[in-house]
Amino acid sequence: MIDVWCLRDPAVTRHVLDDAERARADRFLCARSAATYRAAHTLKRRILSHYRPDVAPTDWHFDANAWGKPAVAAPTEVPAFNLTHSGEAIAVAVADAEVGIDIERVRPLTHVDEVARHVFHPQELAWLADQPELMPAFFKLWTLKEALLKAAGTGFSHPARQLAWQGLDDAWPMAEFGGRTWVGATRALDDGTLLSVAVPSGQDIQAARLLSLPSRSLEIAGGLAPDASPFLPCAS
Questions:
Q1: Nearest C-alpha neighbor of 44 from the set 27, 67, 21
Q2: Are the beta carbons of 20 and 203 closer than 8 angstroms?
Q3: How far is residue 194's CA from residue 140's CA, in Å, rounded to a whole number?
């Protein structure tokens, strides 16, 4: 199972957070960023309870590994998850194995060539140079890279330039990292946002689902009601 939940432009006042999450949200200087953080972690808790309806959203507890990747501490019999947000867009991936996810809106960036040289492997830079549109290709590669590093649990504490995605023109690119093979997929949303997910090879990524939620879904008590579709509906 690989489910990718997506919520854009959330309108949330019904938050479900623990003390640590509330304290972190209160430290944001930007009110919009604080609101997105609260919505993201409320969504995370409600999605986990979707898979374990016997556990209330308020009853989830989390630990982090040495690089800061969060995981469920208790109860333990739950799928793996990963959370990302950019602007007001929020996505949560849930899977039967390690999973990483990243979401970014395609937009102009200053010094994009310098950033690419710092983050991308020489093979990835060669692929990027051949693409007809720079920014969509840049953010496809960026989101895949971040999704893989999050799935592996290291984040950017590992030099991102040392790993390379292969087959970037394919629906399911592959990469070697940490002695394992990983597979990824990227979905372009209708507002110019890119969403990438990465899991260990052997997971049925071709069966991954995109679960889109309406903007006011977190205001509604009870279960979530997503609009489900294949993550890559046009994949061959």
A1: 21
A2: no
A3: 7
Q: Where are the alpha helices (DSSP H) in the chain?
A: 19-27, 31-51, 112-119, 122-129, 134-152
**Helical H segments across 28-93, by residue range:** 31-51
Which superfamily, per CATH, for 2-230? 4'-phosphopantetheinyl transferase domain (3.90.470.20)
Q: What pTM value is reported for the model?
A: 0.91
Band of pLDDT at residue 66, cut at 50, 70 and 90: low
Q: Is 223 exposed, middle or buried (0-12, 13-18, 19+ CB in 10 A)?
A: exposed
The mean of the pLDDT values for the chain is 89
Amino acid 51 reads: Y
Query: Which of 6-10, 19-23, 62-66 is predicted least confidently?
Result: 62-66
What is 189-231 written as a DSSP string?
A: -TTSEEEEEEEEBTB-GGG-EEEEE-TTGGGSSS----EEEES
Q: For residue range 91-118, list pLDDT tens digits in order.
A: 999 999 999 999 999 999 989 999 999 9
Instruction: Please name the residue that has the structure tokens 């432009």.
Output: 9
